[in-house]
Design goal:
The protein has 257 residues and is α+β, with helices and mostly antiparallel strands. Helices cover 22% and strands 25% of the residues.
Length: 257
């Protein structure tokens, strides 16, 4: 058997949807409770749905009984403050696993490249069921920031850079694609991240919002691109050397974030 997947994601691993056009009160993401949880940068997360309805961000497989990233339990104290964000996560009608708002502090393109990671979305996911992907709904107007996607962590020829103004909506197979955000603002970036199960509901949602699986990359000057690539290589080599000095091998693990 094979997993149920979305044809829209098959070629490139991502789709960009129509931008969300309505305003949302920033209190929905500023007044909810955050926990320290690091993922590809200086971050905190505010969960709206978790494994058992607690304010925590752990992978569902780390709970008892362990399970895949599906059937998240909504957290009443959080969803009461963020009803619009909750409705946005529930809109497709797909099974929802973890649902969180990420707070990302400003970083550089070089930071982003070093922080590229894949997500472990489908651990314990039964064969024959829907493949878990993630949606990203940008909340703050980060006009100079962009999401970086690569099929290969260290290959810049495969890079796509997607703009992140307020209302930007992406659906990404983050277990397939290496990803992270370059956030060049002066204030934190906020984004709603939801684990969705692939299936006809998600397919209909992608079609409703005119999902496209190829976009022109945000233009970045070649000097920045080259310097970022060189710094990524330097940091990876430095980490490998530090591990080797302790008798450990370099291990690139999937992120649980």
């Amino acid at each position: 058997m094979a997993y149920i997947t979305s044809a829209a994601l098959e070629e490139t691993g991502y789709v960009v949807l129509d931008s969300y056009g309505s305003e949302i009160d920033p209190k929905e993401w500023l007044d909810i409770e955050y926990v320290d949880w690091k993922s590809s940068g200086d971050t905190r997360f505010a969960p709206l749905a978790s494994a058992k309805g607690d304010i925590e961000c752990n992978g569902f497989w780390n709970h008892k009984p362990p399970r895949t990233d599906k059937d998240g339990v909504w957290i009443d104290s959080q969803t009461a403050i963020a009803p619009t964000l909750t409705a946005r996560a529930q809109e497709p009608g797909s099974n929802v696993g973890r649902c969180r708002v990420i707070e990302l502090q400003p970083n550089t393109y070089a930071d982003c490249l070093y922080n590229l990671h894949q997500d472990d979305n489908n651990r314990l996911n039964p064969d024959g069921t829907g493949w878990v992907v993630r949606s990203f709904f940008n909340l703050t107007d980060d006009k100079d920031s962009y999401f970086v996607l690569r099929e290969n962590r260290t290959d810049p020829s495969e890079e796509t850079r997607i703009a992140l103004p307020a209302g930007a909506q992406l659906v990404i197979d983050t277990q397939r694609l290496w990803h992270a955000a370059t956030h060049l603002g002066t204030e934190p970036r906020y984004c709603l991240i939801t684990s969705w199960e692939s299936g006809p509901e998600l397919d209909a949602y992608i079609a409703k919002y005119n999902g496209v699986n190829k976009v022109e990359s945000v233009v970045v000057d070649q000097e920045t691109l080259d310097a970022g690539q060189a710094e990524q290589a330097r940091r990876i080599a430095a980490r490998a050397a530090a591990l080797a000095a302790r008798g450990q091998a370099e291990k690139v693990a999937m992120s649980e974030a």
